């Protein structure tokens, strides 16, 4: 099964890692800046975390 | 496809593990330095810092597995520290832009910035350590 996927999914195989990582990078940005408009509640949930790692806040 | 590198799925797993550990280190460091007075309960923060740390760790480790052979350093610690501090600096520059656009919402504190930079280096160390172990196993 895995062998079939890796042989036939050449494009997916190259794109998938990049897509997954870009999605996580997007989540990272939302968490770092606390964009509530994108993810409601993210500002408060990661508030202490954001200050701890030196990201801008109020 | 060198046997030296780790495939990206494993990279993401390692990133999540390193990130959770890093999140808790960050929690402990800030508790010790007092750069920011925590507003949430400790239990809440154990969860939040693990989640936030995991996301950061996955991104750093993910970039590492993508860029691995293209980085100018051979040493795994130099590579991980380079990526984690670069990402942090990019985020920090973005933060500066945001705070110049919306000064009331985004505020920068020097003590927290210094602490954050050191934590980015620590992230690189933790991740580099995990990659080193895993590479040996593979
Ligand atoms: Zn704040």
How is this fold's topology laid out?
The complex is a heterodimer of chains A (58) and B (138).
Chain A: H1 2-8, H2 10-33, H3 42-45, H4 47-52
Chain B: H1 8-33, H2 42-67, H3 76-101, H4 110-137
Helix pairs in contact in B: 1-2, 1-4, 2-3, 3-4
Bound molecules: zinc ion (ZN).
Zinc ion binds next to helix 4 of chain A.
Gist?
Chain A has 4 helices and no strands. Chain A has 58 residues and is mostly helical.
Can you characterise this structure?
The complex is a heterodimer of chains A (58) and B (138). With 58 residues, chain A is mainly alpha-helical. Chain A has helices at 2-8, 10-33, 42-45, 47-52. Chain A has 4 helices and no strands. Chain B has helices at 8-33, 42-67, 76-101, 110-137. Chain B starts with 7 loop residues before the first helix and ends with a helix. The chains are: A mainly alpha (58), B mainly alpha (138). At the A-B interface, helix 2 and helix 4 of A face helix 1, helix 2, helix 3 and helix 4 of B. The complex binds zinc ion. Zinc ion binds next to helix 4 of chain A. Zinc ion binds at residues 47, 51, 57-58 of chain A.
Mean pLDDT of chain B: 92
Q: Distance between the terminal alpha carbons of chain B, to the nearest Å?
A: 13 Å
Number of helices of chain B: 4
Overall number of domains of chain B:
1
Low-pLDDT segments, ≥5 res of chain B: none
Number of strands of chain B: 0
Fraction in beta strands of chain B = under 5%
Helix content of chain B: over 70%
Largest interface summary:
A-B, 25 and 49 residues
Write out the distinct hetero groups bound to the structure: zinc ion
The strand count of chain A comes to: 0
Order of helices and strands of chain B: HHHH
What is the global morphology of chain B? globular
What is the quaternary state of this protein?
heterodimer
- Following the backbone from N to C, one meets helices and strands of chain A in this order, namely HHHH
Low-confidence stretches of chain A: none
What is the straight-line distance between the termini of chain A? 51 Å
Main structural class of chain B: mainly alpha
Portion in helices of chain A: over 70%
